[in-house]
Amino acid sequence: MTAPLVSLRDLHVSFDGQPALRGIDLDLARGEALGLVGESGCGKSVTWLAALGLLPGKARVTGSVKLDGQELLGAPPATLERVRGGRVAMIFQDPASSLNPVHRVGTQIMEALALHRGITGAAARAEARRLLDLVGIPDAARRIDAYPHEFSGGQNQRAMIAMALAGDPEMLVADEPTTALDVTIQAQILELLRALRRERNMALVLISHDLGVVADSCERVAVMYAGRIVEEAPVERLFDGPAHPYAQGLLGALPPLDGARRRLSAIPGGVPEPWAMPKGCAFAPRCPARMGACEAEMPSDVPVGPAHRAACLRVAPARMTAMQHA
Amino acid sequence: MSALLEARGVSRSYRLRRGILGGSVEVRAVDHVSLTIERGRTLGLVGESGCGKSTTGRLALGLERPDSGEVRFDGTPMPSPNSAEWRRSRARMQMVFQDPLGALDRRLPIGAQVAEPLEIHGLDNARVIPLLESVGLRRDHAARYPHELSGGQRQRAVLARALATDPAFLVCDEPISALDVSIQAQVMNLLTDIQAERGVGMLFISHDLRAVRQVSHRVAVMYLGRIVEEGEPDAVLHRPAHPYSRALVSAIPQPRRAGARFAPRIVLQGDPPNPADRPSGCAFHPRCAFATDICRAVVPELAPRASDGRTVACHRADDDLPAEAWTTPLERVA
Lengths: 326, 334
Hints:
By secondary structure, chain A is α/β, with parallel strands linked by helices. Chain A has 11 helices and 12 strands.
């Protein structure tokens, strides 16, 4: 196996002494699409903000983040600035608030081109137009001079993707890129990301609360709960046989599209607050398969199958495929 | 027995000013919409933002008066807004919104907010605690403020308040889209339970077809102010008749299970149209792969089609339309 493009080891983040990430180990290969799912507050966005040094000063970050073997945590700002928007680009949920409303869309893309590839003037304008064309903005030659408010939500997200591509990144972190969009527009953006990734062999980290979106676009999925990865598997394996009770619960909570309509197996209760994190497994208070030992210590990762791991004591003795939510 | 709620040919337009100096344009938010909701049943209304589904909900509740057409509740015409009769009718119909934090008063404890509709309608406010318990909240939640509750608990509080006057009809406007997946399931289960216990009729407005299938007995698909298809949820989801419904169903992201085969994904070209600049004929024709001359000229009527009686508004409802006709932007990018 070749060395991973990005490798996170024992990444911890806390805000004012309250933990947000509690030890993340994750690798991303070149050209790979990894989905990161979990509910609000589980740390899926914080993981990448921390990795790219984008968290506010009060955040305490420890561990290791390596891009191509180069340590990013504690790296000088100049190094990070070359990485961000250059080798690693990021797009966010709300494209309208990520774009500057008083500058033309084309100008903003040209700015990114000047910053990361040193292209200016007419060459930058031509390249910005090519990028807008590439992400499917109709009539790019004219629309390059439009302002963000003249674009629809889907077009703004396309413009954001064009800007992300300006630095010719090896990796794109997309944080809930379609959550604010309509269903048919969501399908367009996912299709675009898929095509771009194939063409450029770009790695993708897709952060989403929507299991369907991740299943649709990614090869591997990591499920996060309360600041930890509780299960990681190739996408088909996770959907066919989730090992962790939380992953099972998430899948059970998704209304099916066919078959008999059944009562949804809702996970009872809610996510624990950071200041009241259980001592053992953070999911134990909501878990139907809880045992005494779950409350004593944090479960460590257990291999479940090829490229499949889960952090659950119940998984340890044998693979509990039969275990389903009641 | 008459239906609980019946809307017949209801339309509603707004005037929208264009620019600082420009004149105003008419935006037809809801256009000749007819729908029926039975007691103890749920009608799911799906569509994308700006298609008029929330306006339809407000018209169904009598919060707005239609420009034309009629809404009848329990067999009688909806009284005009703010009349004494209208105020009395409020107790029998309620609304649940998308954002529970916005729908609650941040300065009042939950208990007081649930008691308010009881006091307004002169009912016994000893029912507050049983109401909270009926939606899965605890007795001690009554003294809490909205910010002290989680998203799911807030939506439960909103439901408790909506149920306080024992309504016969509930409009739920995107009630779960602001919630996390596991909490969405809790709220959907709760809505089904409430319906089974109290026999309320519901209009469930959502853009999420999975959720709509889970809670609805019938489903109506809206596009630019008009209902384009209506039927049983499984019929519409598994064999959508209108090209727009086909695209919507195809856009549902879903797990690719090993070995399973999927129909090619339909990716619609272009953006949802602007309601202020409505295309001629069938409003969907600029994005439709099957549009012909008649689609560009004549608005199709919602009617049962010949083959299986599915209610659909499409000139080509009875033609065999191949899925391959849709092109994807992949080819353009490549």
